[in-house]
Amino acid sequence: MNDRLNTLNLARITEAAPGNAAIQAALTKFKPLSPTVIQSHPDACCRIARDWLNGQSRVNHAIAGLPSPWLRARWHWGPLERPIHWCQIMERQTIDCGALAALTLESLKAVGKPALSVQLIQNYDINMVRDFEYLWRYQGGDYWTSGTLVYHECVAVLDAQGPGIRVWDPTVETFSDGAPLFGHDSITAIRVIRYDTDPVTCGSQLNWRGFRLTLNEWSIVGQEP
Amino acid sequence: MPAAAAGRYKPRHPIARTVQDSMKSLNVTISSCHTGVNPAPGIGIARSLKAAYPDCFLIGKDQSAFSSGLHSQFFDEVWITRPWSDLDLPLHLEQIRQRLATSGGYFLPASDLEARWLANAGIKSVLIPSAETFDRTVKPFEKVSEILPAKVPEFIDLSTDPRDIYNFAVSHGWKVWLKGPVMDARRVYNWPHFQATWAELLTTWGRESFFLQREISGLDVTVAFAANQGKLLGAAFMEKRQITAEGKCWAGDVTECPADLFEAIENFTQQLNWTGGGELEFVRDEAGQLWFIDLNYRFPAWIHGATLAGINLPGLLIEAVSGLAAAPATSSGRQFTRLVLEIPVLNRMQLPAPPTFRETKRGAVSGKLSSSSPGGLPQLMQRLSPTVAPGAKFKISEELTEHEQKYLPKMLKESVLKNEPSDFQTPNRVFLTDTIDAPFKLMKKLAAGRRPVRLSPAYSIKTNPDRRLMEAALKAGFRAEGISMEELLWAREVGFRFEDMVYNGPVPLVERHLEGQAIHVVFADSLESFVRLCNLRPLVAKNIGLRLRPFDVNSRFGLQLESLDQFKAIAAAVREHLPAGVGFGVHQHHQSSVTGQNSWLKQTQAFLEQARTLESICGRKVEICDIGGGWTSESFSPFVANLLDPLLGDIKNVLNHVQEVIIEPGKAICEQSQVLVSRVLERRGEGHAHEVVADACLAELPLAVDFARNVYHLTPGGKLTKLTSGVGRILGRVCMEHDILANGILIPAETREGDFLIFSHAGAYEASMSYRFGIGSIYERQA
User: Fold this and answer.
1) Is A49's Cβ below 8 Å from some Cβ in B?
2) Cα(B168)–Cα(B163) distance, rounded to whole angstroms?
3) Interface test with A, best of B564, B566, B588, B618 (most A CBs within 10 A)
4) For residue B350, is it left (φ>0), alpha (ψ between -120 and 50) or beta?
5) B309 touches chain A (CB under 8 A)
6) How does DSSP assign B348-383, residue by residue?
7) Which residues in chain B are closer than 8 Å to A1, comparing Cβ atoms?
8) Contacting B residues, span 712-741, partner chain A, CB-CB under 8 Å
9) B687 with B761, same domain?
10) How many alpha carbons lie under 13 Å from residue A68 in its C-beta half-sphere?
11) Shortest distance, CA B83 to any CA of chain A (angstroms)
12) Residue B291 sits in the same domain as residue B204
């Protein structure tokens, strides 16, 4: 039997590997990037926008369960400037993965589902990375790419009991729990972020796909590119 | 876990000869070789056997040169026969027997139907389950599921009465599949679609054992296995990652079978003494529960995907039965995808001539690519189980339910059979007075109960404005709910007060008819209407509200509240125009009889959340909430018993300032209050007649095709029979193509002209929407 058949053995808990030079270079480059936070103006404009998002989250939760793909139906994926405010988001047709993740986080909180921000490093075919850089050419181009590795934001949905999480990728509207860990469109590294101000309670170690992740630290989970 | 169990592999045959010894002597015939959008398994089996035995001699068998796999490189010989419709089946069986005896080889039929046919012959070298195994595993597989760690989705046998079938589908929100006894499954979406699909499947497959089964949402997973004389040889578990429009796998991920499932399949093959390939199809829901959907008596079409992952089940099967050692299985990766390739057709087997302009149903001579079988498997099914002699295999009649026994005989005695039956004028809508007591009493009791909010039942006048029903509603403390000024004036004539009435659009309220009085609440269907109502003086209602459009539903009614801009516009109108001292209300309406109870509840939760957001943005609190109606008579009592109180609690939790919840169970109360009595004008056909013509028509039953009802046959002598499902029809009296009052129903052989046909559930919209048609202008003359 091929070894690859055992890749998803969930009973196995693996400590993160150190990663090769390409991964280390990406980690160094992406170090300044923190999960997207949507800002609020002091006026009613942002309160109303946020109230609407929370309301729509509860509506979609009632109809479709969680996490709901409704955000992706409302917004296209593409470049977005920072900083971004709640009222501005509502005017936009296109937002990036960070804003989608921030909206998803807010949406999950609106229905009482504990969730945290997730940063990913993903491996892509180099031609697709070039496409990303071209699309973002007016926003700095390659600040979120490093060779074939790219920076990405998602959301961790915490298990009701225990330290397990599932990672929801709002950009592609699916859980990343079945995503490849090698080759094109694979996950190379993951970091789950919990700020001190975050109301979510969880231990410092989380389990995901058989890996033990340390909160707020990068874990290498995929094969080296 | 021991390695043998964990690996889910069984030791090789102990007397296996070497690969070199065995290959050239191995001869295997494989049928069903077509590979299209819904591919048959033949090619996959052939490729796997070539991987296990590179020099084996494979014969591809099918019924048409259109069977694309026959032209592939994987077959050493092609055996093409006449289509199933034309084959001499006993002769063909003998040919198979002789070929196998001569070659000393094996036959792997790759269609369930062919396997079923061959099972009766008991040819040892045909590697399929026995006839007994087929008999013991009958769809929808309740007994099989007892062996497996899986549940069978709820289903209903279609030999029951139509109203039960309808209620089953409604209870699941029409997320149901119509399934045949051997092959074919179709998703059906409503009653007319169900009836048309069922008629088509009956024609195609010629059998009566159909059932309707609830759809399970989840991931399609499937297990392919091979067994010999009950001994499980191996199994492969596959998750479908990409499916075609027909639901067939296009790309998948293969792993070893989970240990508990493997053990269950071991038990399954042992109990059934299974020989051959097989497939168990499941859906895994979000909670991880496996639901057993289908069993196939042969390898699946994706079988070579398992071989690519290192699990060569056809190889294991042939190795076990022949004792010839197969080449070791190797893995190229656990995931596979399908590919469309053009290959040259065989020189000695050119394609049939182009299709003629005349359509033909025979796949073998048609150029149309449709199913997995250009050889015409449906024709084989029809030959194996010739029907559809009307009524031949249907139950003759259904027992009357307790409810029917309570009301029908009394009604007949007091109306149809009261005098000479021939004097009874038909078509005639007969009121069943006693049927309305219980629902009105129930609502009266509910309204009087102590609850966190006041519960107000409202009688929907449009459902049936019959004075008897209106008066009963008034007596039971209902509000009157109207959609036109005429309805409100009619309600006042019956005895309702304006101040107790509820008004819903889209027709704007005509304020001059109110004579300065205010009704209880009016719900606007548009922002324009809302603003107008708010600005009328004197005030036309003590409460003014908005009808909200169901979320994500393409409805013409109500205000859409999905984008922030829509919320802002509506909130501004409420803030600026709703007078102080006038209560604010919200209203929804979507029929649970169409969406199903679960969807209705979800939509209602969404409606409440939209109202909460609106409250938050506009600053006015919702005081009246109208949740609408649309329950069937059968579903309303369970709703009240189990769901109403929790729902009222939810409403109060979400909309804290709500004082009153209005509920409109019109159809639930009315639909069984009347039956339509008609006469048989003409009986057509012998025995269980195909169809009869009645003296009623769509004018008296305008929704005849839209939902199910029970139909009763009454002889002038007083013999009452409830009709069951069948292949007959009751045709209406007018010359309209669609004037069919009942479809898929069994007409009893003893039916005679002049007999009565009684249609149930004729007391709601069937009454209020009926019209004059096909009777000239006799009413005008009378007037």
Assistant:
1) yes
2) 8
3) B564
4) beta
5) yes
6) TSPPPPPPPSS--S-GGG-----SS-TT-HHHHHHH
7) 7, 256, 310, 331
8) none
9) yes
10) 24
11) 42
12) no
Give pLDDT tens digits for B158-201: 888 889 999 999 999 999 999 987 778 899 999 999 988 988 88
* Full domain range(s) for residue A65: 12-220
The CATH number for A54's domain is 3.10.620
User: Residue B745: what pLDDT?
Assistant: 85
Other beta carbons less than 10 A from residue A125's beta carbon: 12
Put simply, the answer to whether A4 touches B331 (Cβ < 8 Å) is yes
Average pLDDT, chain B: 89
Q: Bridge-partner residues for B711, per DSSP? A: B759
Whole-prediction pTM: 0.86
In a domain, A7, yes or no: no
Mutate to test the interface with B, among A63, A111, A159 (most CBs of B within 10 A): A63
Q: How far is CA B35 from CA A115, B106, B348, B349, B381, in A?
A: 46, 22, 20, 17, 21
SS (H, E, C) B704-758: CCCCCCCEEEECCCCCEEECCEEEEEEECCCCCCCCEEEEEECCCCCCCCCCEEE
Query: Of B51, B28, B109, nearest to B309 (Cα)?
Result: B51
| Calpha distance B744→B247 (Å, rounded) | 28
Residue count of chain A? 225
| B665, B636 Cβ separation under 8 angstroms | yes
Range of the domain at B262: 3-141+217-338
Q: Please classify residue A112 by burial: count the beta carbons closer than 10 Å to its beta carbon, then call 0-12 exposed, 13-18 middle and 19+ buried.
A: exposed
Residues B133 and B184 grouped into a single domain: no
- Based on the domain organization, do B130 and B188 belong to the same domain? no
The number of angstroms, rounded, from the C-alpha of A49 to the middle of its chain's C-alpha atoms is: 22
Using the beta-carbon criterion (under 8 Å), do B7 and A56 form an inter-chain contact? no
A1 assigned to some structural domain: no
DSSP symbol at A42: S
Q: A120 - beta bridge partners?
A: A152, A190
Burial class (CB in 10 A: 0-12, 13-18, 19+), B686: exposed
What does the CA dihedral B452, B454, B457, B461 come to, rounded to 10 degrees? Answer: -140
C-beta of residue B423 within 8 angstroms of C-beta of residue B716: no
Q: Is B9 in the same domain as B112?
A: yes
- The alpha carbons of chain B give a radius of gyration, in whole angstroms, of 32
Residue B48 contacts residue B326 (beta carbons within 8 Å): no
pLDDT for B235-273, tens place per residue? 999 999 999 988 889 999 999 999 999 999 999 999 999
Q: How many structural domains does chain B have?
A: 4
Residue length of chain B: 783
